[in-house]
Amino acid sequence: MSFQQGLSGLNAASKNLDVIGNNIANSGTYGAKGSRAEFSDVYAAALNGAGQNQIGIGTSLSTVAQQFTQGNITTTENPMDLAINGGGFFQVSDGTNPTRYSRNGQFKVSKDGFIVNNDGLKLMGYPANGAGVIQPGTAQPLQLPTGGIPPAVTSKVNVEFNLDSRLKTTAPGGGTGTGMDLKDSTTYNNATSMTVYDAKGQDVAVTFYFQRAADPSGAVPPNDVWNVYATANGTPFANTNPDANGNPTTPFTVITFPPTGGSPSDIGGAGLVPITMDVPAGTSTRGNPTLDIPGIQLDLTKVTENGSSFAVTSLTQDGYAPGQLTGIQVANDGIILARYSNGQSKPAGQVELANFRNPQGLQPLGGNVWIRTVGSGDAVVGVPGDGNMGSLQSGALEESNVDITAELVNMVTAQRAYQASAQTIKTQDQVLQTIVNLR
C-alpha cells in the first residue's frame, strides 16, 4: 500500500498555502504582483511502456506563476511617485550589477540629485542637454539639475490689441510728429505696459503710448493714423528725440490703418513686418541701473482698429529673469520637467521603460525588483506611451494586484485539501494496521 499520494497532497497544499500567504503579505506592497501555484499530476512509468489502468502517484508543484495584471492606481501627494498605467517596467540600476526591473514607482531624490528607489537603485532614462533637449540613446541614471536657470535677454515681443476708432485726435496740432507730454493724459489716447529683460535678467518696464493723429498724406478718404511712443522705466526711447523735459517729440513708430479700419496697412513705413525696438539703459523703480536691450523684434501686425473699446489681448516676450529650481513634474510620456522660480520650465530627462515578451519568465529578487532570464527574453525598451508601453502618471502609485477576497477563498480550499490528504494517510494507516493484525 502507498502513502505517496497523500504525502504529495500534503506537500502540494502546504506549498499552495505558502504562495497564498506570500500574496496576502504583499497585498499592501506597491507594484507587487501576486503569484499562483500551478500543479501537475505524477504517474509512474510502465515497465513495458503501456499501462491503461495506471493509478497516479500524486501531484507535484509545476511552477509558481507570477500574475502580471494591472493593479489599481491610487493618487498620492508626492510628485516623485510614478505609476505605470499599462505595460512596461521601470529600469533601476546600482551601476555594477545587471539592470533590475520594477513596477514600484516610489522614487526619491538622492543628495547627488539622482532619482532613486528605497534601496538606492537609480532610475534609468535619457538625459537632457543644457537647452532642455532630450538626448535619446543608451539609458543612464537620471539626475536632476541642482543649479538655477540663467537669464535670457528679450529678443522678440508680440502684441495684440484693438485701438478705438471712435476716439478723437490727441496729437497736438493733429500732426504725426508733434510729440506728447508723458504727464498729460490729454496728449495721448491709451497706454499699456509690459516687462522685458536685459542681459542680466533685470526687468525693464516698457510703456507704449498710442496717440491718434491726422493723415498727413492728404488721402481721400483719409487713412487712420496712430502715433506710438515708448518709454523704458519712464525714459523715452532715443529715436523719439526727447526734449529738455524728457518728453518724446517724435513717435517711436506710426501705425496706419485704411479708412475702413481693421488690420493695419503700414507700420513705420516698412509695410507689414516686425520692426526693430532698441530699449535704452536706465534706472529701475528699485534704483538699480538696467542695461540697454538692442535689436528686439516687435511684431505689431496683429493690431486692429475698430469701433470698440481699447483692449489688449496679448503681450508676450521671450526673455526671463534667472530662477532657482522649485520642483519637478513628470509628464505622461515620461519627460521630467524642472520648474523654476521665474515661471520657466524645461525638460531635465525622460524615463525609459522596458517590456518583455514573457514577463512571467522574470526572476524575482525581492525588494520589488526582477531581473531578466533566458525565459523572459531580452528587454524591449521605449518611452512611455509608445508601442506597447504604458503611460506614466505622476503623483500616483500602482497598488498590488492581489485580490484579498480571492486569496481567502483559496486559503480555505487549500486548507480543506490539506485535511483531505491527511485523511487519506490516516485511512491508509488504518487499513495497514488491519492487515498487520490478521492472524
The number of distinct helices, counting runs of at least 4 residues, comes to 2
Shape: rod-shaped
CATH class of the largest domain: Mainly Beta
In percent, how helical is the residue content? 10-25%
Largest pleated sheet = 9 strands, antiparallel
Count of separate structural domains: 3
CATH topology of the largest domain: Tick-borne Encephalitis virus Glycoprotein, domain 1
The poorly predicted ranges are: none
Compute the separation of the termini in Å.
19 Å
CATH superfamily of the largest domain: Flagellar hook protein FlgE
**How many runs of DSSP E, i.e. beta strands?**
32
What fraction strand? 35-45%
Please give the CATH architecture of the largest domain. Sandwich
What is the averaged pLDDT score?
Answer: 91
Radius of gyration: 38 Å
Structural class call reads mainly beta
Molecular structure report:
The protein is mainly β. The protein folds into 3 domains: 4-69 and 402-436, no CATH class; 81-135 and 325-398, no CATH class; 156-317, Tick-borne Encephalitis virus Glycoprotein, domain 1 (Sandwich), CATH 2.60.98.20. It is built from 2 helices and 32 strands. The strands form 9 sheets. Strands 5, 6, 9, 10, 24, 25, 26, 27 and 30 form a 9-stranded antiparallel beta sheet that branches. Strands 12, 13, 14, 15, 16 and 17 form a 6-stranded antiparallel beta sheet that branches. A hairpin with a 5-residue loop joins strand 12 and strand 13. Helix 1 (4-25) packs antiparallel against helix 2. The two termini are 19 Å apart.
